[in-house]
Amino acid sequence: MPNEKLKELRTKAMRLPLTPGVYLMKDKNGKIIYVGKAKALKNRVSQYFGSDKNHGIKVRKMVENVTDFDFILCDSEFEALVLECSLIKQYNPKYNILLKDDKGYHYIEITKPPYRKIREAKKKLDNGSEYLGPYTSSFAVKNTVDETQNIFKLPKCNKSFPRDIGKGRPCLNYFISLCSAPCARKITEKEYNEAIEEAIDFIKGGSDKAISQMKKRMEEYAENLEFEKAAKMRDRINAIGKLNEKQNVVSNEVKNQDIFAIATGPEKACISVLRFNDGRLCDNEDFIIDAVKDLPQARSEVITRYYELRDTIPLRIVVDGEVADAELLEEWLTKKKGRKVIITVPQRGEQAKLVSMCSANAAEKLAQSEGLKGNQAAQSDELAKLLGLKKVPVYIEAYDISHTGGSDNVAGMVVFKNALPYPKGYKKFAIKGFVGQDDYASMAEVLDRRFARYVDGDENFAPLPDLILLDGGEGQVNAVLPVMRKYNINIPIFGMVKDDRHRTRAITANGEIIAINSKRQVFTLVSNIQEEVHRFAYGYHRKKHTKSTLTSSLTQIEGIGEKIAKDLMKHFKTITAIKNASLEELCKVKGISEKKAESIINFFGRND
User: Fold this and answer.
1) Which of 1-5, 244-248, 316-320 has the lowest mean pLDDT?
2) Neighbour tally for 577: CB within 10 Å
3) End-to-end CA distance of the chain
4) What is the fold, at CATH topology level, of the domain defined by 555-603?
5) Contact 25, 12 (CB under 8 A)
6) Residue-level pLDDT at 246
7) DSSP string, 243-266
8) pLDDT tens across 458-473, in order?
């Protein structure tokens, strides 16, 4: 966006009042491309047209396309939220989270009387039927309809009642106790309607509520000596019981709840939703959206958009992290449901395990969409959440120092891309700034040289990483912070701490120790990084130290100094090759005279 237009929009934004409202961003054609709400319009809208350093890619793209904006004042932030929902539904703005997917929606249809039927439907029709839903899982709808028809012995055929009553014999389903056969007058219209009502209660309220009501009616029938009706009710209760035995209870703690988790990558993010009814996982949904930078705000938008599309809202909504405007969102959900709804972020126990399951599902779906392995996405996502990173790290650089008593001091840099080693990015550094042992100074020198090469435009040192990990503790981190400030580079940087057995146990920064032993994905990733950078740095040091040792042995020869010794090793590669070289071959090396060549031959005891 041209600076003049940006200034114009910022000036307009600065004239807005500090009151709640809704703002509508428009493109050059006047089309609404984003709708947002604000507690204070002036503060919120002006942020878009200031510095873009804190904006994610999606927001920057949106701002680039904004040529004007409009606003609507509201009496309260809650009123602004309600209006925002309405306007998003009306305009479907390009840059709002809309939770579009390609699965479509499914309904349970209850046809109009007489002799109502329960069946699947792909869309609502204006045909007098009652519809439950929408549901995004056709499998869940089919299962629910099949189970309901079997338990309450409802017809599955295409016969129309009362038109087809008495026109034929009952089908096989009647003889295997899966249908009450209204076609053959085996059940009265009143009894049929009672069965339909109980079936609807079963679908809406779940099995526990249905069983409670049926037990009460069974007892009433028994007291009135209506034993046949009591027996039918008993059979239905037993059928539900058998169905429940086949299903695994996932949550004993909370019966009805929805769980949300977001996994985000460099370009895309995945939202997973697990829906529980009677403690059982009854449905799951996944949505692929553009990558998000502000996770709390994204969670808030996702929950709002999700329940705009659905009639069923649980009393408890569980999420994998902080939700922006959580209290406001709870108020909106409570009003929509008519009962108190809470949003919670569990830290431990059964609920935390369910959130981890949802997060793993989101990571796997995201990985599939981006062509990665599920564990790669899960490891990076869990690391970002644990360290409080603004985005999931795609490129991670790790550094380690290696030496022998301060001699042959070197450093290794390894790169992990999408949680896997990326050898093309590996770098070796020989410490040049001093002699002796100083791991802190060594680490500072290496990072200084790395960033200097980047600033000078060396493509071999681009791009900058999303995260830096140093082998060591707080001391190593503090040693390189001045280097980061020197080049005005803002990259999250942490130390990798080992236990007394040299195994990774924690991550450290800012005086805080973050234990990773209980975080399986993070522990695996960080351990792999630390082992790889140690292997690479140590391998370079060992090679350099071996070469240094060999060079030192050559300097014992009369007339051979360190420089000539290095030239000999560079030319012949090994001591054995030098030992077996002829006088003529030795003289080909720069600085080797015939006299020095004879000294080398005599040193190795050869008599040519």
Assistant:
1) 244-248
2) 13
3) 80
4) DNA polymerase; domain 1 (1.10.150)
5) no
6) 46
7) HHHHSPP--SS-SSEEEEEEEE-S
8) 888 988 999 999 988 8
∠ CA 379-381-386, rounded to 5°: 95
| 574 contacts: CB under 8 Å, gap ≥ 6 | none
> CA nearest 11: which of 60, 50, 66?
50
- Taking the C-alpha atoms of residue 394 and residue 98, their distance in angstroms, rounded to an integer, is 26
C-alpha to C-alpha distance for 135 and 118, rounded to whole angstroms: 15
Identify the CATH number of the domain defined by range 3-91: 3.40.1440.10
What's the pLDDT score for residue 205? 67
- DSSP secondary structure of 153-205: T---S---TTTTTTSS---HHHHTTS---GGGTSS-HHHHHHHHHHHHHHHHH
**498 sits in which H/E element:** strand 493-498
The string of pLDDT tens digits covering residues 156-197 is 888 889 898 988 888 888 888 889 899 999 989 998 998 898
Strand order through the sheet with 118-121 = 118-121, 106-110, 130-135
Distance CA 7, CA 21 (A): 22
Give the torsion sign (CA, 153, 159, 163, 168): negative
Architecture of domain 395-535: 2-Layer Sandwich (3.30)
Burial 194-216 (b: 16+ CB within 10 A, else e): bbbebbbebbeebbeebbebbee
Sorted by sequence, the CB contacts under 8 Å of residue 277 that are 6+ apart come out as: 206, 255, 256
Domains 257-371 and 395-535 share a fold: yes
Q: Which stretches does DSSP call E strand in 278-377?
A: 280-290, 316-319, 342-344
Which amino acid is residue 462, in one-letter code?
A
Say yes or no to pLDDT of 212 above 90: no
C-alpha 393 chain-centroid distance: 12
Residue 330 Rama label (left phi>0; alpha psi -120 to 50; beta): alpha
* Boundaries of every domain in the chain: 3-91, 106-246, 257-371, 395-535, 555-603
d(CA 376, CA 422): 13
Distance CA 26, CA 487 (A): 38
pTM of the model: 0.54
Q: Which two tokens stand for residue 348?
A: 């431990």
Fold annotation for 257-371: Nucleotidyltransferase; domain 5 (3.30.420)
